[in-house]
Amino acid sequence: MISAGISPAAHSLEMVVSMSVVAASQDAIALRRMQPLDLPAVLKVQQRCYPPHLLESPEALASRQQLSPDTCWVAASSGKLLGYLFAHPWRGETPPKLNVELRQLPADADTLFIHDLALHPDARGHGVAPRLVEQALRQARQRGLRYTRLVAVEGAAPYWQRFGYRSYRIPGYGLGAYGDSAVSMQCLL
Ligand SMILES: CC(C)(COP(=O)(O)OP(=O)(O)OC[C@H]1O[C@@H](n2cnc3c(N)ncnc32)[C@H](O)[C@@H]1OP(=O)(O)O)[C@@H](O)C(=O)NCCC(=O)NCCS
Questions:
Q1: How many domains does the chain have?
Q2: Is the per-residue pLDDT at 162 higher than 50?
Q3: Domain span at residue 183?
Q4: Does 149 fall in a domain?
């Protein structure tokens, strides 16, 4: 269940954006909707960002973009893809399985599930990640979704707390391939 104290994302997100150190180079980094042709470059960034046990197949990633193109974004500069965000509508607290192709989205979605956010190491620290998150959350609000949820891996929970996400537990449910240190997180939209 969502706890009564869960806080909305927007305020925290504005804080993250305004607190970011905006480097001059950021102006040249543009966001756009992910296209199917971006997948090879996305996979290269994924490879730079995660250990082998967290790498997902092209099919698993492509299925998210195909089912929800409006909530999957990339950051690019001079034709080079620097980062990406996969997100899609979902329902309830139980996250989709990692590295498994999504066949369909729930008809009664209430949640924007942020599946993956990753930036090439050279593109980090310039506030690009909050811009990607903001784009996806804006689409989610326009669709009338109420919550946003994700699974933080590799110790990223403190990062997501900056956006207002808080951890929650699903009794009797393990996060499987996400890894032993994975944390379920949620936030009101
Ligand atoms: C997570 C990620 C997208 C953040 O991008 P970024 O450009 O580093 O982040 P921002 O510019 O928004 O913010 C930088 C701040 O967040 C902190 N931060 C970045 N990644 C973090 C993490 N994984 N855990 C905790 N804090 C983190 C930085 O230390 C920095 O802190 P400061 O403001 O006190 O100096 C990037 O680090 C990344 O691609 N990591 C690998 C993939 C990953 O772990 N994705 C999240 C999976 S749930």
A1: 1
A2: yes
A3: 9-188
A4: yes
The type of residue at 95 is P
Exposed e or buried b for every residue in 128-150, given b needs 16+ CB within 10 A?
A: bbbbbbbbbbebbeeeebebbbb
Measured from the CA of 150, which atom of ligand 1 is nearest? 48
* pTM for the predicted model, two decimal places: 0.89
**CA 84 to centroid of ligand 1, rounded, Å:** 13
Domain for residue 155, yes or no? Answer: yes
What is the per-residue pLDDT for 20?
Answer: 36
**Residue 85: which CATH number?**
3.40.630.30
CA angle 8-143-94, nearest 5°?
65
Q: What is the pLDDT of residues 46-103, one digit of tens each?
A: 999 999 999 999 999 999 999 999 999 999 999 999 999 999 999 999 999 999 999 9
Ligand 1 centroid distance, CA of 159 (Å): 6
Closest C-alpha to ligand 1, atom 48:
152
Ligand 1 site, residue 20, Cβ cutoff 6 A = yes
Instruction: Decide if 2 is inside a domain.
Output: no
Ligand 1 centroid distance, CA of 186 (Å): 18
pLDDT tens, 43-54? Answer: 999 999 999 999
Ligand 1 mean position, distance from CA 60 (Å)? 23
Q: Is residue 4 part of a domain?
A: no
Query: Residue 67 and residue 64: Cα distance in Å, rounded?
Result: 5
Closest-CA residue, ligand 1 atom 8, reads 124
